[in-house]
Amino acid sequence: MDEPKTRPGDPRRVFLCAERDRRGVRVASRISVAKPRIATIDTRRVRPPAKIAEAELQTPEHRAWAEEVKRRAGYRCEAIHDGRRCGKAAPAHRMFADHIRERRDGGEPLDPKNGQCLCGSDHSLKTAKARAARFKAWTGAARSRAPYGDSR
Q1: Sign of CA dihedral 140, 145, 148, 149
Q2: What are the residue boundaries of the structural domains of the chain, listed by start?
Q3: Contact 77, 89 (CB under 8 A)
Q4: Which residues have C-beta within 8 Å of that of residue 18, sequence separation ≥ 6?
Q5: Given this model, what pLDDT does residue 5 score?
Q6: What is the pLDDT of residue 152?
Q7: How far is the C-alpha of 1 from the C-alpha of 17, rounded, in Å?
Q8: How far apart are CA 123 and CA 5, in angstroms?
Q9: Nearest residue to 116 via CA among 129, 102, 97, 93
Q10: Which positions ≥6 away from 115 have C-beta within 8 Å?
Q11: Is the pTM of this model over 0.90?
Q12: pLDDT digits (tens, 9 = 90+) for 33-91
């Protein structure tokens, strides 16, 4: 199907709509929808604080450490999934130099052996697990609970 003719700055958006014709064959048709004239605004009473990088992570020494960790990994994610290395790599994906043992847990901040190269999703997952373990140790929680207090 041909794209609808629109001029630059045309306020219409184009969506695909899947439906079936008389013979039951699935077809896609395009629907143009006008954009709203009034922009949306953030109406939350409490907004999350702006993210500010820690000063320690902005030092030339830390930047050199991060570059060494990523270079050593070939700018490829080092996470292992089901016995296979993650396939994400730079420049298509953002890579993070991650501390294997978190700095807050006593890991050496500038030791290349304490570093691994991770993609964004694996870095977020690993960081969340480390925070959960740290919180569990801090609160003395013996076991985790199911959501909404369901202890089945």
Answers
A1: negative
A2: 62-139
A3: yes
A4: 26, 27, 28
A5: 55
A6: 44
A7: 13
A8: 43
A9: 97
A10: 65, 66, 68, 69, 72, 97, 98, 99, 100
A11: no
A12: 667 777 777 788 888 888 888 888 899 999 999 999 999 999 999 999 999 999 999 99
**Alpha-helix residue ranges (DSSP H) falling in the chain:** 60-72, 120-139
Query: Which structure tokens are listed for 114?
Result: 């304490």
Torsions phi, psi for 2 (to 5 deg):
-80, 145
Which residue, among 31, 99, 105, 26, has the nearest Cα to 65 in the 3D structure? 99
Residues in contact with 85: Cβ distance below 8 Å, sequence separation at least 6, in sequence order: 76, 77, 78, 79
Distances (CA, A) of 51 to 54, 55, 58, 119: 9, 12, 14, 20
